[in-house]
Design brief:
By secondary structure, this protein is of the alpha+beta class. The protein starts with a helix and ends with a helix. The chain has two domains: 203 residues, no CATH class; 220 residues, no CATH class. The protein contains twelve helices and 14 strands. It is elongated. Strands 1, 4, 5, 6, 7, 8, 9, 10, 11, 12, 13 and 14 form a twelve-stranded mixed beta sheet that branches. The longest helix is centred in the last third of the chain and has 47 residues. About 4% of the residues have low confidence.
């Protein structure tokens, strides 16, 4: 039988039993729609969670800290307790990290270790003073509220939380709390103290000009004051009264930027093998993706149960069709149709039910997803207007591959469900079939 004759015959048979076909296909529609909607929902939730986390953290960034072992001296040592390598952040290790092919930039960080107060007029704020060996804080990808990201000696960039939390330590009860000061372009005082050998207190005041204020990002930057590394080194040497030996003491931390997001976790693992303690926000994103992959499989399985029920309906419909068309099967065989032709006709009808049911399910699942998207986004937008966080860009997201796979799956479900009834029709003897009433 010619392929076009076969298609025309299958189409004719489906149309002449349209009511039964529509009712049977309805199960496939519901099952396919459930698969589309549930997987799209889990995919949208994953995308939303990843996007929200990406707003709070630079996924290319890796925080690196020293790991001290019992025998750690000037580089790498082995701890007898943990039997693992331990390392300080020495110049030799920094050079080794810079030469790694996945590394885009390395920023050295050192904290001020003296007792100090940050003052502006009569006001004070509590901050962490961080020295960095870069002349442009743009390498951190922080968002500036105002000012510039360029750092020079004697200048500072302050975090958003620290900038607005200056308080008057001598404020009297009932006195009005002063508003946050406008710090951009202003001089602030860093008053450091240390104790002399005779117990007397020695003070050192440093004046810094604020050149930039950061937007609050819910990270350590919010409570930090960034200055040049050379400034912090000088202040720490004043506080301790001795020169710092980096080969022996190392640095407090590093910020390593990977060239690509996909390299971040691998690069962090490589840094850990050096004995350092390295952590990347990308590791959290990996965990998020793994969780939502399991969720997608679970949701897809729930939707597949509906397709299983639809498959039983197709098998039942095709079994009844074979019984009702026994004489027709005998006539087709009598005029020369082969067993494979009969098998193809009934398999084609079952596949057609699955195919058209799959098309309807894709449309229904997509429409349901769009409605759910609109309702959810309106809800989250209202929350955002009340200051409860930024709304997600999408709640239900349907990737291009999902409708294609769902249509193929629905068609295969139809074919598999109709195989045994079609096989029974194929092996039916023509003489017996023609005698059937």
């Amino acid at each position: 039988m010619h392929i076009w004759d076969l298609i025309n015959l299958i189409t004719y048979n489906l149309i002449r039993r349209k009511n039964r076909v529509l009712l049977t296909a309805l199960g496939v529609v519901i099952g396919t729609a459930a698969v589309i909607l549930m997987i799209s929902l889990s995919n949208g939730l994953k995308q939303g969670a990843t996007t929200q986390f990406s707003r709070m953290a630079d996924l290319k960034r890796i925080e690196v800290f020293p790991s001290y072992g019992k025998d750690a001296g000037g580089g790498i040592a082995v701890s007898s307790e943990t039997n693992k390598k331990a390392a300080i952040i020495s110049p030799a290790i920094i050079d080794q990290i810079k030469n790694m092919p996945e590394v885009d930039a390395v920023v050295i960080q050192d904290n001020l270790k003296s007792n100090f107060n940050l003052q502006f007029g009569r006001l004070q704020s509590f901050v962490s003073v961080v020295g960095v060996n870069t002349n442009d804080l743009a390498v951190y990808d922080y968002i500036l509220k105002e000012g510039d990201s360029k750092l020079e000696r004697g200048t500072a960039i302050i975090g958003g939380w620290a900038a607005k939390n200056f308080t008057n330590p001598n404020q009297r009860p009932g006195e009005e709390t002063p508003p946050p000061p406008e710090l951009l372009g202003q001089q602030i005082r860093l008053v450091m103290t240390k104790n002399a050998s005779d117990g007397t207190e020695i003070k050192k005041t440093v004046y810094l000009r604020v050149v930039g204020v950061l937007v609050e990002s819910r990270s350590s930057a919010d409570g930090s004051l960034y200055v040049r590394l050379e400034d912090v080194v000088g202040w720490n040497e004043w506080a301790t009264g001795k020169r710092i030996n980096r080969s022996r003491d190392g640095y407090d931390s590093l910020v390593v930027k990977a060239k690509d997001v996909k390299d971040s976790v691998t690069l962090a693992d490589q840094l850990n093998t050096l004995g350092l303690m390295a952590w990347s926000p990308s590791s959290i994103v990996q965990g998020i993706n793994s969780f939502f992959l399991v969720l997608q499989i679970f949701f897809g399985g729930v939707g597949a149960i509906s397709l299983l029920v639809a498959a039983i309906g197709i098998a039942n419909t095709m079994t009844m069709s074979v019984m009702e068309r026994t004489a027709e099967i005998g006539l087709i065989k009598a005029i020369g149709a082969s067993d494979s032709d009969v098998l193809s006709i009934f398999l084609g009808e079952a596949a057609g039910i699955g195919f058209f049911g799959g098309l309807g399910g894709i449309l229904l699942g997509w429409l349901a997803g769009q409605v759910l998207n609109m309702v959810a986004l309106v809800y989250f937008l209202n929350r955002a207007l009340r200051g409860e966080g930024a709304p997600p860009s999408v709640v239900v997201f349907t990737p291009l591959w999902l409708p294609i796979v769902s249509l193929i799956m629905a068609t295969l479900v139809g074919m598999v469900s109709g195989y045994f009834p079609a096989r029974g029709a194929m092996h039916m003897p023509p003489v017996t079939a023609l005698k059937h009433e």
